[in-house]
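To assess whether ligand presence alters the predicted conformation, the chain was also submitted together with iron/sulfur cluster. Input:
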Amino acid sequence: MKIGIISLGCSKNLVDTENLLGLLISNDQEIVTDYNDAEAIIINTCGFIEPAKVEAINTILEMSYYKKDKCKYLIVMGCLAQRYQKELTEEMPEVDRFIGLYEYNNLGTILTDILKVKISNTYGKNTRVLSGKPWMAYLRIADGCDNRCSYCAIPLIRGKYVSTPLEDLIKEAKQLAKNGVKELNIIAQDTTRYGLDLYNERKLLELLQELNQIEELHWIRVLYMYPDEIDDSLIEGMSKLDKVLPYFDIPVQYGNDKLLQLMNRRGNVNSIVNITTKIRETFINSVLRTTIIVGFPNETENDFKETLEFIERVKWDKLGAFIYSKEEDTLAYDMDNEVEDYLKVDRLNRLMDLQESISKEKNKLYINNTLEVLVESYDALTQSYRGRSFLNAPDGIDGEVWIYTSESLKFGEFVQVKITKVKNHDLLGEYRGRI
Ligand code: SF4
């Protein structure tokens, strides 16, 4: 059967989509990219915050038009399906089946019933089929979350934190590396907690030590670290591993103690500053990335100003910010003193303006430095290759490196680039040879 797949949401959800692709392909189904050709369309959704839900619903509505033609089945899975399965089943009859996250063990049987083609119950056991660039993969080391941040619906949707056994992860990473992956991005809702549920102790460092030995891998990057779980031994241990990038993605969410408490986050501003200081003392070239939520209930102008001061103080290399989204069934849902919409937008803009100036100054420090860059594409308009250095996580969140050269470069290869200029979040430079 010809099946079209749409993946929405975060990298954690993308891993599920790639497992689905593995399942379908190993069961001789054909994946098509033109939905006009599809006999079935499967949408893997996100249901984390309001904009993600709106995007998912709009995508379902858009895809339901194809059912008037060749497409016979429309199936929706993922976080939105998990969170609102009952309501959506009643309200969207154009969808043949909403499949919740806890039904994936049975996914083969469910798809066989709907699509009338034989699909085995081997979801997660087939080789994952990467949907993006073949030299980069995410390694999801756990699912669910045991933290109870008061604004977050993830634990309600994905359940308790469940680590994947270490030996399974090493096996998966080796397989990915054998298939051409050079950059591995370690993900989970909280990567620093890895192992606690399975082994009674945190095992992120041990996992990184093992991954560091996989010959074909060149870069290993850790994303989504919880600040109070980053201790000296993890920082020092990471500094000894040559493939592990000095990139620390630590979503702290706010920069004022009152709000951190209301958000039910562990730690405080001082403890966060201490961690960032320790990281910068240990690595000469660390990259610190964070995420901030603005407009959380009870946020005052003073709290926000303190957060700006905190950002100014730490000078995060990279920062993403979001407007608070009120989610039902979360602890924050019933909180009083909501922030008015115009203030939320104003604060988001002020925050991003500040970060833009910090990022620009930070980027300028790389002028005249030569960086190792992974070549990923070519932009005909500017006649430059585009790639990423250790400073840039995938998916465009940290900008890119533009590479100018008269030579022909291969996508997926590592090259040396001498940085000559800064353009917004991007670095521009000249090719200096292969690695
Ligand atoms: S750490 Fe907090 S924000 Fe992140 S997934 Fe868990 S509960 Fe949500």
